[in-house]
Amino acid sequence: xxxxxxxxxxxxxxxxxxxxWAHDKSxxxxxxTEFKDQLDKAGVxxxxxxxxxxxxxxxxxxxDGKLLIKLPPAELIDEAExxxxxxxxxxxxxxxxxxxxxxLENDTPDGRLVFHSKRVGEYTIKFCG
Length: 129
Hints:
This protein has about 130 residues and is mostly helical. It is built from 5 helices and 2 strands; from the N terminus they run E-H-H-E-H-H-H. Strands 1-2 form a two-stranded antiparallel ribbon.
């Protein structure tokens, strides 16, 4: 069975929404329906591989002395490793679109903030498998 994850097409818009939720707890949706509504209103193009019934925000602190390690499902690691034997490493398209070498293609303060939003967006939904 192919492991499918929630994903988005436009990581920058998604990342901006994640940043908003991080800064303003009252803006966070409390149900899956509210979540989908917020994504739609923000213009986030999302892919829902299965019906989700619950929404959980995991907020961490970097000052509490706790190191949070989010482990991917073992079967996802196995599937990813098997897939990598026959194909290229899959990265979201924004990496190849935005990066031509070790510097951002359009290295401006605004460009760096857009790239940061994309990375924040990717980090929040991807398993490290």
